[in-house]
TrEMBL record:
Database matches in InterPro entries: FAD-bd (IPR002938), FAD-dep_Monooxygenase_BioMet (IPR050493), FAD/NAD-bd_sf (IPR036188)
Region of interest: Disordered: 177-197
Organism: Cellulomonas biazotea
GO MF term list: FAD binding; monooxygenase activity
Source taxon at top rank: Bacteria
Entry keyword annotation includes Oxidoreductase: yes
Entry keywords, A to Z: Monooxygenase, Oxidoreductase
Domain named FAD-binding: residues: 14-367
TM helices/strands, residue ranges: none
Protein name in UniProt: Monooxygenase
Amino acid sequence: MTDPSDVAPRARSAVVVGAGIGGLAAAVGLARRGWDVTVLERATSLEPVGAGIALAPNAVRALDALGVAGEVRSMAALQGAIGIRRADGRWLVRADATRVGEAFGEQTVVVHRARLVDLLVRALPDGALRTGVEATVTDPGSASDAATVRLSSVSAEASRGGPGGVRTRVAADVVRTDRDAEDEPSRDDRFAADASGRGDQVAHEVLRADLVVAADGIDSRTRRALFPEHPGPVSTEVTAWRFVVPAVDGLVPAETWGRGSVVGLTPLADGRVYGYATASLPPGTRFDDPAAELRRRFGSWHAPIPAVLDGLDASAVLQHDLRWLATPLPRFHVGRVAFLGDAAHAMTPNLGQGGCQALEDAVTLAALVGSGVPDVPDGSGGPARTDGDGLRRALAAYTAQRLPRTRRVQRMSSQVGAPTTWTSPVAVAVRDTLMAVVGRVAGPLLVRRTASVVDWHPPAEAASHR
Ligand SMILES: Cc1cc2nc3c(=O)[nH]c(=O)nc-3n(C[C@H](O)[C@H](O)[C@H](O)COP(=O)(O)OP(=O)(O)OC[C@H]3O[C@@H](n4cnc5c(N)ncnc54)[C@H](O)[C@@H]3O)c2cc1C
């Protein structure tokens, strides 16, 4: 009988840890280049997340390279008059969102996150996504050896995907499957045990892969394992609430600035309204009824804010304390593992660029490994194997291209005004518009810096794969 650990990886197998925007985009990019991709997500389903996301021109171009920008552009709802108001309703700035498109050749698009996630999932090969599996990178691999990832699935049923009928399969080779309950249970494992009331056994598998993409978010377990010295995320002492509510008559997209707080309302393409609010609060501050807290804080602000908050249900409100990776990683790769998105460079949302940079990462990584890893026959007559030296060079190039750029954007984001300003799609669009207008007149340094963020284009090789 063959020792399972001797089973060689199939050609160009990639395991992506995390099905957020960054992980899904990387998986789509790699699959388009012929990689056999498995995406592992610990959540048992990709539940619709009740919030919007602003996709600046650089992100829309990245989505273009992944073949999904058409639908995103059609969701553009941030058009015409937008502005910044005071709490009493007086306009501080009024601008035209379409000017951003004129300045940068592409519109900033505000989409519901669930729509973006759905678009990316639909662009994946059938069965590439496995939900309900906690992934741990146990060996980052080297030029000569594959990386290994251990999976703990909460139950066979859960790992087959949640609502939405996500079909699953395994692209990378399974070298060991066993059932035991020895390891310390993860949060989801404990949840499964609690939910069943029986303490279900946990299934473990070990996958080997030519490439692992660590897209496991700001609290990345992979980052903690491979960069144990890194101090991790730090708090900004600012909290953000987000929600999506039904359409509001006569809404003019605006961000309203009060003393130390911001409220923003912007329409989504389907007519609903994406709202957000920020306030300076110690990390961990939570309220029994967040909707009531928002009414208490902002219920006396100008119309239509009170009406929007009146109809708000507490369960529809998301709250996140804002954190970022103030200390940069020394590099974005270890062995055969590439880090991207918040796992690599979580930033404050002041520039609205965290997700946009994750999309840039994904497209750049796919372009570099896609073009930089020659297939070399392994002599067996079987499919070509991935050349480890080529992959090493490609990942070094990935760090060289992405680390300095994301570091610059992280710094800019934390430096842009007070943390409670510029956090929103509307404010970002207003700023971009104003900068574009002012820039044509004076060309100040700030304009050039802003342009350097949103003026990104996918590597030529990526664009040619459309
Ligand atoms: C208030 C706020 C507003 C924002 N607004 C914008 C905006 O307008 N525009 C913008 O571009 N960005 C914005 N951002 C930033 C953006 O949300 C993030 O940068 C982006 O979502 C990061 O995506 P990601 O895929 O890297 O990580 P995540 O979205 O965090 O995804 C990580 C995934 O990995 C999974 N996971 C983690 N560990 C494991 C494991 N061990 N095994 C399996 N799965 C695992 C998690 O469950 C999760 O699904 C905002 C952020 C905040 C907080």
